[in-house]
Every structure is written in structure tokens, then in C-alpha cells.
Design a protein that fits this description.
heterodimer; A: 28% strand; B: mainly alpha; globular
Chain lengths: 309, 329
Amino acid sequence: MLDISHLTKRYGKFLAVNDLNLHIDKGEIFGFVGPNGAGKTTTMKIVCGLLDATAGSVTVDGVDALKCSKDIKRKVGYVPDFFGVYDNLKTMEYMEFFGSMYGMGKEEVDAVADGLLELVNLSDKKDVFVDTLSRGMKQRLCVARALIHNPDLLVLDEPNSGLDPRARFEMKEVLKNLGSMGKTIIISSHILPELSEMCTSIGIMDRGHLVTAGHVDEIMNKSDGASKIHIQIVGMEDKDDIRTFMAEQPNVTKVNFTEDEVLVSFNGDEMAVANLLKNIIGRGIAVSGFYKEKENLESLFLEITGGNN
Amino acid sequence: MKNKIRINPILKKEMVVGSRSMKMSWAIMAVSAILTAIVVFTLLVSQLNVASGATYDYSTLIVLFPVLGIAECIMLSLMVPVITSGSISGEREKQTLDIMLTTPISPFSIVLGKLMSAMMIVMMYMIASVPVMAITFVLGGLSWWNLIGLFIILIYLGIYVGSVGIFCSSVVKKSIAATILTIVIGLAIIIGTSLIYSVSITIMSMYYMTSGNMRPDSLLGPVVVFMFNPYSPIFDFMVRALSDSSIYDMVSSANINPVMGFLYRFWIPISMGINLLISFGFLKLAAARVGNVKTKKAGKVNNKAGNKAVQNTATTNNTVTENTDNQNN
């Protein structure tokens, strides 16, 4: 669906995107992660035909985004990270306005817009003035607006930015629905747990480079491998004894104590985890809780980007 | 297959939005009130000057035509910049221009739609002024062709000032600054070309009086410059309407060459043509400015929330690390 090859974008001396290569298949929900200034928005705007590239190529479903910007705008729907409203324009009129920009007649827009407003849970707000909608509703309307011409690819630049938790949840549901309908979606966000829940694949960008990209599970496996095991013990009086015992166990790299649990950095597979638990119990330590912390996108993001923002 | 005429989407939207705004109604009311005040004031002064028992000659009210015509032109020259100067900068301020540019509509169509919507307002304002203007025709004895001519002149002036306004709006970020810039550019063109023309004529006349010798084409340059004055066809139109003569008749007795004679004779269409071409140039420049976003730096408009989220994430992770490290130590 989307092929980016050796994409480079330079603003004077500043290199915003550096030799980016990326392939996204049809029906994928691709999450773009990276600190501010990493080049995500620039890349997205180039894909939408809003920005020229310095070098490289971008094709969406075989259409060259750099040479045929008018054609690409019919293939791509873009939701920016802001929402501009027109005073005195109603929700349906807003949809009709953008539909007419794509050469659609009123009847055609009305037929499509009804379904789209239902998809984004705004069917009861058709005759409401857009500037009276809440921020979350406006953002969902923006998604509906971007879908008015039935694009092959939907590009969302931080759609959850500035939304409250409920609005974020609703937006997530809308995007999940779109994903289940087979739409190809590129989404950038700072709210990483939501991305990892929603996306089928992710790419991490830093200072113009695509550091890593692939299926969510593959990306998670690219971390340093040391997972954390939380162990709650009844009666942790002799911490030194427990620390010595834990440190002697195979695959344990580090032992830390928090207020009520032992935190073990562990470098082994599932069987090794089971053996560790067996050994602890075998030693007669009263274990009241034992769980392996799942590697998440936040820690991976910080690990890769060095915690810089 | 049905072939429907597609109205420019920007024009359609602006009409919907504009019709719900009170600004347009207030502007039309203000213009009509000013024109009415001029007529009432002129009628009162004229009647006070008539000696008791004498017959009042209503045909003298023909003088209202240039007064009202010029008043309309001046008001239009001030009102159109206010309408158009926010057309592009306002879209930028509302952050809707980028969204529009993600659609297949061309920057020139955006600019043209903005001009057309401004012209619709100008036409409403013209229609609203018809009853007041009609007084000069009924009482002053002018023909209806003069009224139609005045409307054509007003539409031409609206296009010219509107194009400058849209261009300024595409150059300047703030609407208020764009309004001021439009008026400054308009005044610079009007005053500049008038000064060049009048100073040249004065110098040449003085030279002619002292030497008694003047080359027939010596004024061609200043005449051509004056044609770039958007108000010059209005001046010629008023002269023609009031006196059945023209600028050509006023200067034909002087020693002018055939080229200048042609320019003077067809002053209105030539000058209007030149200035409409300039308007087109301004619109093209505005469209180029609108479409120029492709080379501008992509950036975040509002990232506070996003930054906060990552900062929170980083803080949470760092806190865990710090706690565990403290325990470890």
C-alpha cells in the first residue's frame, strides 16, 4: 500500500528526514513513535502530498506522492494534530463543504456523511454548529471529514493530542473500527500504551532516522531482553539472604528491593521463569505474588531514544 | 448524464457562513445610511438656498451622481480590504488552510472563491444602494445606462481592491495587518500615479508656456502611468455621465499624437483592462503564496499535551528506576 524509499527532507541545513525506508501493507495500522522533531509530521505531510521531498520516493497504492500530488490527495485522508473550525457552520455543512472540495455533489455527500457520522458517533450532532462541539467530538468529526472521499490510506497526526481520557477512549474505538474495516492507517501519538494496543506494526523515529520498524511483537523482542519479575514475599526480614539467593539463580542479572517486593531483572525464557519460581518455593520462601512484567512500548521508546524528548 | 454547474466550494461555504453573520447586515446598513445622509443633506442645503417663492430646479441634483458615485467607490475601497484581508490569513489563524490544501482543490480556486465571495457582498451592497442612487436619476435626469455603468465600475473596483486584499492576506499573517497593507498599497498606487501624471502635466504646460514648443508624444509616459490608476476610469466615467464629453474631449484641443488620442478616447476599457490584468496578477501571486506551504517547515501547532504525555511517561519510568536504585543502595 505505502512504499517509502530513501526519503530525505532537508530544510536548509536541518535534516528533518534522513534516508527513510518503510513499507506498510494494506489493512495495517501503523504507529509512528518518536520524540518531537523526530520527523514524523514531515514524513506524514510528504505522504499526503502537502510537502515536497528533497530526495527519495513515496508511492501510495502505486501513485507517486511526489509527482502526482493532486491524485495522491484523492487516495489519502489526512487528520492534522489541530482542528480548525468555521464559525456558523453546522456539522453536516462542514462535511458537505469538504465533500464538495473533492467534487462530490450534495446528495453524494449526504449519503456518505450519514454513515461516517454514525461511525464516529456523531449522528445526533448533524445539525449542531461545529464550534459548539467538544474537542473530542471535533477530532472525531475531523476523522469523518478525512474519510469523506473514501481514501485508501488514512494518516492521523497525533489525533489524541489534548483530549481527555474519555475522548481518547472514544477516538481509539473509532480507529479500531476503521482498522477492522480494513482501512490502512498511519497514526502518530505520544500516548504510547494506546498505540501498542491499537497498532499492528510500529516504527520508531529519532532525529530523522527510522530507528526500527516492524510488527509490534517483533519490535518488543528487539529490546535488551532483560524482563522484570516482581516477587512479593511474606516476611522479608532477611533481605541480604534473599538477595544472595536470588543473585545466585540462573539468568538473574540484577536484584532490587522496593517497599514490598523484590524486583528481579531476568534474562531467560518462560521455562527459566518457571524454574526460578520452583527454586524460590523450594528454598522455603513464602511467595505471595509472582509476575513477569510485560515489556511495553514506553520503556522500549525510552530505551531506543535514550529518554530524550 | 446530468451536467451540473459546480459552484466554487469556497464561495458556497462563505455565503452560508456570511449569511449567518450580522457583520454583513451591519455593513450594508451603514453604507445605505451614509448614502441616504448625503442625499438628505444635499436636498436640505439646496432647498435652503432657494429664495422663498422661487422655483426649485431639481435638475441641479445631477451633482449628486458623482458625489454618491465617488462616495460608493471610497466606501467600497475601504470595505473590500476589510472583507478580503482576512480571507487567507483568517484561514491560517483558524488553522483551516492546511486542511483545505489536503483536498484536490487548487490554491487558485481557493483564492478565486474568496474573491467571488467578496464580490457577492459587493453586489449586495450595490443592490442595497439602488433606491438611494435612483433619486439622482429620477430628480437629476440621468439615464439608467449611467446606473448600469456605475455598477460595472463598482464591480471592477471591487475586483481590483479585492485582489490586492487577498494578495496582502496571503503575505501577512494577521488579518488587521493585511487590511492596513491593502489600504496602503491602494493609496500608494492611486496617489503615486496621480502625482506622476499631474506633476508631469504641470511641468509640460509651464514648458509649453515659456517655449511655445511641445512635442506631441511628450506626455505619453505620464498618460500610460495614469492608466494604472484604478480610479482613472471612474473619473472618465463621471465626466462622460455628467457632460457628455470625456477626458479625450478635454485634451483633444491640445497637441497630442494619435497614440495618445487613442488612449484618451478608449480610456475606460483600456485602463480597466490593464487594472483587471493587474488584479489577475495579484490573484496568481496570492495563489502561489497559498500553495507555497509545500516548502515550509512542518511543525507542531499545539504539542503541549503530547509533550506532557511523554514527559509523564519518562518521569514514571525514571521514578521506578530511582526507587529501585535507592533500595538497592
